[in-house]
Each structure stands twice: as structure tokens, then as C-alpha cells.
# Entry
Amino acid sequence: MSTVRFSLVTVATKSWVAEAWEKVISGLFGGHAMSETNMEEGLCESKWETELRKLQNEVHSLCHQAIYQLLPMAGAYQQSLLDESLQAYSVYSPEEAEQVFRKGNQIIENIKGHISGIRYNASKMRAANRQVNKLEDMHAKAIMYHNSVKPYMDTLHYHMEQLKAIVK
# Structure
């Protein structure tokens, strides 16, 4: 059995060459390199920083969309259902009006549950995001972001999709 030994210089040279080839190949085919250079600030961002920034932007836009766009639409839809239920008693027979009222009330309860889910998960996600941003190490920050922020983001996304399906 033969043993192959590499000196640290050989290993370092091979990893540097591999990174250089990866950058060249990914540049040719439009892929993403392991590290991207930000020419405006003269900083070299790692893959962790780039992915973390993408996730933070996604969290921000998801919260903004939920709170400032979707919740007002859901509130307007709830109000229209209430108005429809009130008008049903003057238009339909009492049995039909009761059926319209029950159907509208069930939809309003579903909307209320999803609104509560959105508000709860958005606030918890923001709190977790603030805690993660206090960390200094990018690798630890990315792991904590995945473990503490991402679950709230997934649940928020679920409630938003369900609410959009009801409202639209």
C-alpha cells in the first residue's frame, strides 16, 4: 500500500487553481461563483453573506407585502362579506338569508385565522431577525437565520397563500 503525501503548498495551490477555474467557468456559463466581488465598495463577499442578504431581502419584502398589501385587502373583503350578509336578510327569505350568513361567517372565520397567523409569524420573524443580526460570524448568522427565521417565513408564506386564495 502506498501513501501519497501532499505538502501544504501543493494543497493550497490546488485549491487556489480550482477556485480560479470555478470563477472562469461560472463566468462563461452565467453561473454563480463561490464568492462574488462587489466592485462598488471594494469588498469581497462570501457565499454566506450573499445568501443571507437575499434571505433578508425576501423576509423584508414578504413582511411588507403581508402587512401593507394583503391585510388591507382581506379587511376590505371581510367588510364586503359583512355587508352582503346584512343585505341578505332584506333580499332573501329567512332560510336563504341564514344560509348566506353562515357561509359568509365561515369565510370570515377562515380569514381571521389566517390574519392572526400572518400577524403572529411576522412579529416573531422580525424578532428572530433582530436577534440573528446581532451576531458577527457570517456562517453562524446564516445557520441561525435558517434555524430561527426561516420556519416563521415558511409559515407566514403559507398563511399568505391561503389568504390570497380566499380573497381573490
Residues 1-13, 31-42 have pLDDT under 50 and may be disordered. Residues 116 and 159 are 9 Å apart (CA to CA).
